[in-house]
Design goal:
21% of the residues lie in helices and 33% in strands. It has 2 helices and 12 strands. The relative contact order is 0.15. The chain folds into 2 domains: 28 residues, no CATH class; 97 residues, no CATH class. It starts with a helix and ends with a strand. It is of the alpha+beta class. The protein is globular and about 35 Å long.
Length: 135
């Protein structure tokens, strides 16, 4: 009898709890759930920002996967080490056809879902064709 009441109580409360969970505001600092529900769109410029030496620089990939940077979006130069930083200061680069990151420039690991937060606070990601997406 008690088990039947518990099951009925759970059956009544579960849909309500799920509704609160789905509409709850994201927890600051918990970006995993927060970015999962955002809509992504293909970047119209195929560029993303990063801060280097206190300046905002713009980055893009060429068709061969080479990384380029610009201060103004007009004059572009190849990035010799092929790396840029995210909002938190982690280094990112493309290595062995994967997006990887590092905090020290020595130890690298694959970026989950190939997503990172740019210095402008927007989230960026590459798909498996190296197309840039933003939200």
């Amino acid at each position: 009898m008690i088990m039947k009441r518990v099951i009925l109580l759970l059956a009544a409360c579960l849909p309500i709890a799920m509704q609160f969970t789905a509409t709850a505001a994201p927890v600051p600092g918990n970006n995993i759930c927060h970015i999962a529900v955002r809509d992504w769109s293909k970047s119209t410029t195929a560029t993303w920002p990063a801060i280097k030496d206190g300046k905002t620089l713009w980055y893009k990939l060429d068709k061969k996967g080479g990384l380029w940077w610009s201060e103004n979006g007009k004059k572009w130069s190849a990035v010799k080490d092929g790396a840029w930083t995210d909002k938190e200061g982690k280094w990112l680069k493309i290595h062995e056809n994967k997006l990887v990151w590092s905090t020290d420039g020595k130890s690298w690991s694959e970026v989950p879902e190939w997503k990172w937060e740019g210095s402008d606070g927007k989230w960026y990601k590459f798909d498996n064709n190296w197309t840039l997406w933003v939200n």
